[in-house]
């Protein structure tokens, strides 16, 4: 039989209506890290793949609108930022349990040989795919014959 109690992450934030005794050590850490703010900070998973002549970065952003995503490349550092705002209409509803809230998150990865030319990004089915070409170094090597 499955439980109706939602999964509790080590770093989740949740509102506390009354003081409770933590059921486990992880719950105690959750309570210590509980930030009483309307906007929670969450992380989203990313994959970084070296494709030879380019990098492909995938960010899994299910339920996020394309307008709420910001992607920047600054001197080899790729930053992906997301900000999802809750609406006032949803706050007035009488939820018994609510797990989706407003949040913001930023993930970054350093790609030492990333080129700022020829960048592309696409967002399909909750997956952001960013393709970053590598800097092509011209090798000025001249073979010298020995007499």
From TrEMBL:
Domain SHSP residue range list: 37-147
Which InterPro entries does the record cross-reference, listed alphabetically? Answer: A-crystallin/Hsp20_dom (IPR002068), HSP20-like_chaperone (IPR008978), Small_HSP (IPR031107)
Q: Which family does it belong to?
A: Belongs to the small heat shock protein (HSP20) family.
Task: Cite the PANTHER family for this sequence.
Answer: HEAT-SHOCK PROTEIN 20 FAMILY MEMBER
The protein's name is: Hsp20 family protein
Q: Which organism is it from?
A: Collinsella ureilytica
The opening ranks of the lineage are:
Bacteria, Bacillati, Actinomycetota, Coriobacteriia, Coriobacteriales
